[in-house]
Amino acid sequence: MEIVGYTMALLIGITLGLIGGGGSILAVPVLAYLFHLDEKIATAYSLFIVGSAALVGSIRQNKIGNIDWRTAIVFGIPAIIGVWIIRHYVVPILPVVLLTIGDYALTRRMGMFGLFSGLMVLAAYTMLSDKERKGGTGKIKYNYPLIIIEGILVGGITGFVGAGGGFLIIPALVVLANLEIKKAIGTSLIIIAMKSLLGFLAGDALIMNVDWIFLGTFTSLAVVGIFLGIFIGQFINGKNLKKGFGYFIIVMAIIIFAMEFVFATH
Predict the structure, then answer these.
(1) DSSP 8-class letter at 180
(2) What is the pLDDT of residues 242-266, one digit of tens each?
(3) pLDDT digits (tens, 9 = 90+) for 159-194
(4) Looking at CB atoms within 10 Å, which of 24, 35, 121, 174 has the fewest?
């Protein structure tokens, strides 16, 4: 199972390199089901993996001028605060059983993975959509109240489920900051990197024993996979691949939901 898990780490990176996003959403199920990590550790480690992968991607985007740093800071600070609050204060105090209705018990694991499977479906929908993403005019203007609310909300979701949330951030940057689509995509990567890495390092890393050797190995394989994916992408059609991966994520979301709510033994 560990060999399969490490192979999946490489495949997560390859997917990111090939289609530019989405692959890191597989980190949580790989960590939970192949390495048998509990929901707290799986979502925490995923933050580090997602953040590291996004950081690599943002370096490439910065080289071609696709990051608006002012917007990244304006949106990123509330997002970082949202992740930190959830990871440092909320997740540690969540009870094992969130609520009971008669004989039915909704556990913390079911809540976290149930929300995660829902986000996987939303992420897959953005990959499968034939609509061409439209950006703003590029004349930057900020709706500060909504940016702060959206940033904290997206950060909180990221903190709870360990996913990057690029499919939520990109439309927000277009609507709330009027960014062109290419700059919105590039800027979203540095926001994901900042909120995920800082959320993990200022939250989970301070209150849990982190297996840095395992985490470093998994993350390194994912980063190597990114460069492999970029290379392979020169020879294959990324658009068709993106749609295929979108359907795969939907199947994975259904499996996760079924394992937690239908066949669960925990």
Answers:
(1) -
(2) 788 888 889 989 999 998 888 766 5
(3) 888 787 777 888 888 888 888 888 888 898 899 899
(4) 121
The residues, ordered by sequence, that sit 6+ positions from 166 with a Cβ below 8 Å of its Cβ are 21, 22, 54, 185, 188, 189, 192
Paired tokens of 3: 């060999």
Least Cα distance to 75 among 176, 4, 7 occurs for: 176
Q: Assess whether pLDDT exceeds 90 at residue 144.
A: no
- CA-closest candidate to residue 200, choices 83, 108, 91: 83
Q: Is the dihedral of CA 169, 173, 179, 181 positive or negative?
A: positive
CB-based contact 188:76 (threshold 8 Å)? no
Rounded Cα–Cα distance for residues 90 and 88 (Å) = 6
Question: In whole angstroms, what is the distance from residue 253 CA to residue 118 CA?
Answer: 7
Decide: 140 and 70 in contact? Cβ < 8 Å. yes
What's the whole-model pTM score? 0.85
Question: Which two tokens mark 257?
Answer: 């939901």
Between CA 92 and CA 111 the distance in angstroms is 14
Q: How far is CA 23 from CA 3, 124, 139, 254, in A?
A: 19, 11, 31, 17
> What's the pLDDT score for residue 131?
67
Q: What's 100's DSSP letter?
A: E
In the chain, domain spans: 2-261
